[in-house]
């Protein structure tokens, strides 16, 4: 079996009606919520990223359910899943696959690595060596694997959900800025509320709820949803608004590094998915607003002065800066277009 | 118009409107020297503000630009109806055909009052109407130039009109302070325009998505200052040129049917006209009256009190707007001891047409007159500011004064009266003081001298003739004429009256001459048992009145064969207090000096409103005006809502209209919503009690979805079909009902009377919004 250019393009015929997308998305979110209670925002962001064909970075301390979220989402979506536990000694070929000599056929056969799946869960990506990180990130960007001169396309949809512990933790290799930029969004799980935590204790006493999780969406339906997202309309004022937000991050005094053009592009893509998930075939400025922190925050680098003067009790510095920029940028309230 | 006309925001338009209003309000100040009191200015400012700000409101409602001036004209019509239409209008705002008839009368009345009144004029309703109409039309013109044509520099054209008018009438023209103010206002307007243009141009570039920023056009202050000074200068020059070339007022018959200005004509003696009227072969009917008890008074038209050597004339006193004829002043000099009695007389004027009303002297009140009539403080003569006597029917209450000979004889004559009544030119023909001296010698008191003069003139030596003076070349009432008359001893009433008045002054008795009608000829016709009396042009007459301290002005009759001699002035009159002629004074108190020097009069004077002179009307009109002003925001809001519903029905950005109306309603009710995206607004109000009802909440969300689709949806979205628009309107009504139901009574009242949305529209801060995601 050589290159497998399967289902690379989402078939236009399979594009779903926008109302269906909304209904399915709601079911997926509800389904995942049965496993991870009280984390609707993170779940929504994760699904948004899947629908927008991006990659998701889940960043938080160990044990808050990062992997659980990724697994639950994958299972709900009925897509093929693979999971890579990143460790310092993991090699790039452990991710992408390796060519093995087949004695019978007397030729090399490519053994596909775990990256060949619709949803790839990369646990604790910051524990891998930079070289291995780079291999995964190349797959994310190119959506293909090249080994021994042969290019293998990855099945679509292809989404990497990477989890990462905060950089202060021991034995980690923090992702460099350029590589963080490859992720469409980053979400934090946060600790559950006491009530949710209590509920969790009782539900998981005997077995993992993940075992009972049902599949909600067929993979073909998922492709249909993604196709519908691509057809979501973005009006000129909303595009201008996204550009304006990106420009504002570049000019902000508290930021050393602003949002890249890729960030702007992904912001709009994510906003389209967000709109579709709400059963809307056009993007609102509110979609952009809702996604500004997940999409922009992990790409920005604050100045050291801003870090020094930040009050840690008020949440992550960079999130606060993004929220401030969003609040300060005039939103297109839409003084009526004339048709 | 500019091809690249920038679209101005409501706030920018409002700025231009406010500057236009300030300009118009200052420009009409130029009329200040011409019109008494200041109430007219407030009226004009009110009308101008009404028109201009109505225009601004209409533009804020996105009425098409070309349509606004037309609607402004409608607003002007409604304002005029409100102010002047009275009971002829529907709901005080909608004119009826009768209202237009009334306007026509007011307008012609205004023409008359402009011709009749001297400066400063009293603001009779007709004049107020003309001012309001003129200012309203000029305001519309101003608005067209500033807002429609976007050529504020030409605002000078309508503004120059009020600046020009004083130049015709007052020699000094417009005062410098007003010119400076107007120039400053003009500069302000230009300044506002420059700012508006600059920001509008910047906005324009943004809209086009072109990243260039045009440098603001700098308008040097010097050039605008030059323009303003130019306006002022041209105004002065044109005004003085026009004033110089205006033909002088032509003289005509005293009581002719033509111009009413005759009596104002300086240098022309009313005597001449009177003589011409007396010499008419056929008498012309003047008026008729009904008086009980055989009461036959003389009717005074006007009183001549100034003698300048060759002419008797009326002292030039402005009309006092407070002197309305429903309560006339007390006769000068009359004191309580003198017996008086009141007699009502009904007068019907048919043919004679003059601005002076035939009224017996003295009278206490006149009822039933049409138009504005004012009495003179000293002579109690009555004249009109805006109409004339034609067709008038009125009831005058005459005060009969019955002094006794003792009272007259005992009276001093000159104390307490204006020295004007004693003034004589220095160069007097020798015969006058000689005659006066011979008559005064041998008589004890001033009264005796007066009786002697009357007796002298009535003696057989003198003959009545209307022709002799004309043939002898001594017609009129001047010194030369009196000298000739004393030698020729032939003349008519004018000569006898002026001669007696001059002789009396020579003898130290204050005198004046009244012109009017004698009592006329009774007819056989009786109305309600009262004999009707006809008065015609042959009854025109002039007679002297002499002043006696404590009694006032007392008429005499020196003309042989005319009128009737008062009993008290017959030689050897006894104790009998009877008097035949009307004389004297009405009130029981001594007259209180000269009311025309009252400091309360004048420009800063009585804050009477200009609409009417009747007290209760004044209050009603004032209240109506205040109510109209107060209801402007409410009406604007109602109009705005109606316009938006119309947009929904017509499919003119219907979703936007519905949403704007929803947001405005919420703002009116004080439901604090941030400005922002529809979604943010919707989520900020979703928690309100009004939206707990799922139906209401759903309706509100439907409105939100519609506006979102309209604003951010695909470009090929067309207006929703009529049913959907209908549903939109229903949703809007349901949401509004729910919000109103939910709000407190005070909020509802505030929302109706002072809709906050009108203000917040202007002061909305961009970029501040409520939280709330999708």
UniProtKB/TrEMBL annotation, chain A:
Pfam families with a match to the protein in the record: AAA_3, AAA_lid_2
Domain of life: Bacteria
Domain AAA+ ATPase: 52-193
SMART domains assigned to the protein according to its UniProt record, in alphabetical order: AAA
InterPro entries: AAA+_ATPase, ATPase_AAA-3, CbbQ/NirQ/NorQ/GpvN, ChlI/MoxR_AAA_lid, P-loop_NTPase
SUPFAM superfamilies per UniProt: P-loop containing nucleoside triphosphate hydrolases (SSF52540)
Protein name: MoxR family ATPase
TrEMBL record, chain B:
Superkingdom, taxonomy of origin: Bacteria
UniProt-listed Pfam families: TgpA_N, Transglut_core
Coiled coil, from the record: none
Biased composition (Polar residues): 575-591
Membrane listed as a keyword: yes
SUPFAM superfamilies linked to this entry: Cysteine proteinases
Alphabetized UniProt keyword annotations: Membrane, Transmembrane, Transmembrane helix
Domain Transglutaminase-like: 485-560
Region (Disordered): 564-609
Transmembrane segments: 14-34, 40-61, 73-94, 126-146, 153-170, 176-194, 225-244, 617-639
Name of the protein: DUF3488 and transglutaminase-like domain-containing protein
Organism for this UniProt entry: Agromyces salentinus
